[in-house]
What does this fold into?
Amino acid sequence: MVWLLFGLFLALLYFYDKYKLSYWRRKGVKSAETVPFFGHWLPVFLAKKFAGTTYKEFYWQFKDERYFGVYEYHRPTLVLRDLKLVQDVLVKDFPHFSDHPNWLFDGKSYARHSPFRENGNLWRAIRYKFTPTFSASRMTLALRRILSSVSIDLKEGEIEAKDFLNRFSAYALAAYFATEIRGMDNFQHIMRQQFIVSPLRYLEFQILEHFPKLGKLIGARFIHEPLNKVYEQVLGDFANGPSEFNELVAKIRKDGAMQLNAKDFDVSGDRAEVFKFDLSDELVHGHVSQFVLGGLDTTSNAMAMVAYEVAKRPDVQAKIRAELTASLAKYGGQWTYEMIRDLKYLHSVLNESARIKPVLPFLFRVVTKDYTFDDGLTLKKGDKVVIPSIAFQTDPAYYEDPEEFRPERWENVNETRNNFTWLPFGDGPRQCSGMRFAILEMKLIFAKILFDYEMTLSEKFKEPLKYHPRTFLTQIDGPLYINLKKLK
Ligand code: HEM
It folds into this structure.
């Protein structure tokens, strides 16, 4: 009898799995062979492949399709291949795709209130109210503070670039908030633990992202204690610093609640309702946590990719230097926001590095209102859609010799290139709100280094460059040693 019941249970499990993994076939969407219970996610589960690599491989397998289906374990995800659909999802039909999926956040860590994690009208209110924190005038003030308070200590010899750049980004962030980070060594150590994780922690991340109910049941956390304690202290220091950010928070509070008219802001319609949200301490801390969790390692890892590319190319360094010398001469030797904004070639170098080595290689959205594509395919509320940016960014249909690092391809390219083939910061109303600040920091540090030094890869760095297998941001595996030689 027991065996019979057990057999019945296995049979039920078998048919349940078969049914779940037939979702795309039933919808007439192409999809690759699956593995029971894991769908297409076994290599990701085993940390053998990144999610971005998996999407990219399927992108080439289904090259005649406008989209294809992927199973992340049992969860069906529609991956877009057609740029017109990408534009529809990110911009034109945004009210149908306005949310980010749950991803890694649990219900306890501060990050649960980050703008990346918030959805619906609360997200809209926060995004709208805090957008001025990244205006050109705020960037000018932030730059002044970085220049006056962050010492960029460089000397001839070898540096470990990842650590150096991470430290610089952390100081720059603190300068943005007009404060400092207490116990920088401990803070960096803690951050490393959050971004490069043990196999067990990696499993916890998989559970948080794909099985959130189970995650809640077993108490899985995105940020563990005592890491949370350190964040608490850093976020408190940032949130209370005498910065323009704080002035803005005070102003919003003085005006009362964050109030929005639904007809302007309701992401899912145009009802004549008014929404009000209190700007609680939790929300403020959540917002600041986005700077720390979403703005620090993203920027410093993106800088490390640039350092790697630039250190291999003396010709690129010479061009950056020539442009910098000319721009400094134009602005009377002053390191101003305008002077840095004018460094177009350096900007091209950053664009090109982010194209080939994006730290976030894909974008995602959740369907917030049922949606029917122009060919009749209907997605239901709650379905997940992925835009495999890494695949578009390295597709020869859009970039000639896509694997070649060629900053020149960005010359004479401006807004007209806005055709959704370059998405390292996302696009549409949910585009990265810190992009301007990230680019400012990146341009500043490379201008400062190359003004005085020549960069080369140290012999201690072993090619080919590899990415760390267990992390949710793309980052270079191991140390990145770079030699600095003082210019005559
Ligand atoms: C090189 C550095 C960075 C990269 C590559 C990056 C990339 C991204 C990407 C891909 C998204 C998702 C966009 C989308 O879904 O369309 C995002 C969202 C976001 N990023 Fe960044 N980011 C960087 C630095 C920063 C910094 C420095 C800050 C803050 C100071 C920041 C704040 C945010 C916020 C608030 C969001 C959520 C936006 C929303 O959902 O409304 N990021 N970022």
Observations:
- The chain has 21 helices and eleven strands.
